[in-house]
């Protein structure tokens, strides 16, 4: 995607309305946003179909209570320009 924020990498920890809304705007302006959804072990991460706050970005489900999940998030954040 092109835009004034093309090339900017953002990691978003899924949360309530203000953060996802801000990240939607960043993604709409061209930033590469990856959303980290907190997942329980063995459970599927299900987004709300047609969720307008999920557009223009990728998401990944991570068990943030496990050491490997924490390490994964840390690696993503190390590669990012912005952490929300």
Give a quick summary of the entry.
The protein is an alpha/beta fold. 29% of the residues lie in helices and 23% in strands. The chain has a 4-stranded parallel β-sheet with strand order 3-2-1-4, sandwiched between helices.
Strand and helix map with partners:
Elements: E1 9-13, H1 18-28, E2 32-38, E3 58-62, H2 67-79, E4 82-83
Parallel strand pairs: 1-2, 1-4, 2-3
Q: Termini distance?
A: 20 Å
**Structural class of the secondary elements?**
alpha/beta
Strand content: 15-25%
The CATH homologous superfamily corresponds to Crotonobetainyl-coa:carnitine coa-transferase, domain 1
Unreliable runs, pLDDT <50, ≥5 residues?
Answer: none
Q: What would CATH call the class?
A: Alpha Beta
Anisotropy-based shape: globular
Radius of gyration, taken over Cα atoms and rounded to an integer in Å: 13 Å
Averaged pLDDT, please?
A: 87
Number of strands: 4
CATH topology: Rossmann fold
How many helical stretches? 2
CATH architect. name: 3-Layer(aba) Sandwich
> Share of helix among residues?
25-40%
Q: Going across the biggest sheet, name each strand in turn.
A: 3-2-1-4
Task: Explain what this protein looks like in three dimensions.
The protein has 84 residues and is an alpha/beta fold. The protein has one domain: Crotonobetainyl-coa:carnitine coa-transferase, domain 1 (Rossmann fold). It is 29% helix and 23% strand. It is built from two helices and four strands, in the order βαββαβ. It has helices at 18-28, 67-79, and strands at 9-13, 32-38, 58-62, 82-83. A four-stranded parallel sheet has the order 3-2-1-4, sandwiched between helices. α1 (18-28) links the parallel β1 and β2. The longest helix has 13 residues, at 67-79. The model has no long low-confidence stretch (mean pLDDT 87).
